[in-house]
Design a protein that fits this description.
The chain has 253 residues and is α+β, with helices and mostly antiparallel strands. It contains 5 helices and 5 strands.
Length: 253
């Protein structure tokens, strides 16, 4: 009985002598408890050696003085001749479209994101419109008064203008003078004078006689029917009078 424990203790070192395909009972028990097999631990132990070997290789370039190689990014730089679309500059602004004032107000209303105005009655809207018109009228009136004041200051500060030279000389034209016979003096301060004209025909050289009548102004009723008078052209004195009596050359017999 006393020799049995000694035999068991001597048999335990012989467990590793089993063949590779047969696992010992102790190993099977440890596998059941931990859930890790010796085969799974083997790769870890095998991989530890390369890491240790790789460390001296990585340190070798540093010791030799060689610069470590830099990693090349996946996206290679474009060729020198190749054209690549460039992004627009941050400061460049897109051309703005020209909109009228009405379209700008409509666009501003469409993009409004504030709170909606409370509902108002037609009387309130009308009163608000009247108030807005009154404010605009006051602003217009103030602006016009300011513009008038500025215009008055400009006129006061401007140098006096030199008088312009007359385009035509102030020369009175020659008035026409006619001699004729009074044929009527019935109207008040007006006489009717007949002007006799005798001229030679251009082609036939015959004396052609004609007459015309005109109304002349006689301020003192000096001329009478049959008198030979001289009249001069004047400003319009009535609807038909454009002549004025100068003197009576011969009285009627």
């Amino acid at each position: 009985m006393a020799d049995e424990p000694d035999n068991e203790t001597l048999k335990t070192p012989e467990a590793p002598e089993n063949t590779e395909g047969q696992a010992p009972e102790a190993d099977a028990a440890s596998e059941a408890e931990t859930g890790v097999t010796p085969e799974a631990e083997a790769p870890a132990e095998a991989g530890a050696a390369p890491e240790a070997d790789a460390a001296p290789e990585a340190e070798a370039p540093a010791e030799a003085g060689a610069a470590p190689e830099t990693e090349v990014p996946e996206t290679a730089a474009p060729a020198a001749g190749a054209s690549e679309p460039t992004a627009p500059a941050a400061g460049a602004s897109e051309p703005t479209e020209q909109l009228s004032s009405k379209e700008r107000r409509r666009k501003a209303r469409s993009t409004h994101t504030g709170e909606a105005r409370a509902k108002r009655s037609p009387e309130e809207r009308h009163a608000e419109r009247l108030m807005e018109r009154r404010k605009k009228a006051e602003r217009r009136r103030a602006r016009r008064l300011q513009e008038r004041a500025k215009a008055a200051e400009r006129r006061a500060s401007a140098p006096a203008r030199e008088p312009l030279a007359p385009v035509h000389a102030a020369v009175e034209g020659t008035r026409r003078v006619r001699q004729g016979i009074v044929v009527s003096d019935k109207a008040e301060k007006t006489i009717v004078v007949r002007i006799d004209i005798a001229r030679r025909h251009r082609r036939y050289e015959k004396i052609v006689r004609s007459s015309s009548t005109l109304h002349a102004h006689d301020e003192s009723n000096e001329a009478h029917e049959g008198d030979v008078v001289r009249v001069v052209e004047s400003r319009p004195l009535s609807r038909t009078k454009r002549w004025k009596l100068v003197d009576v050359l011969e009285r009627a017999r």
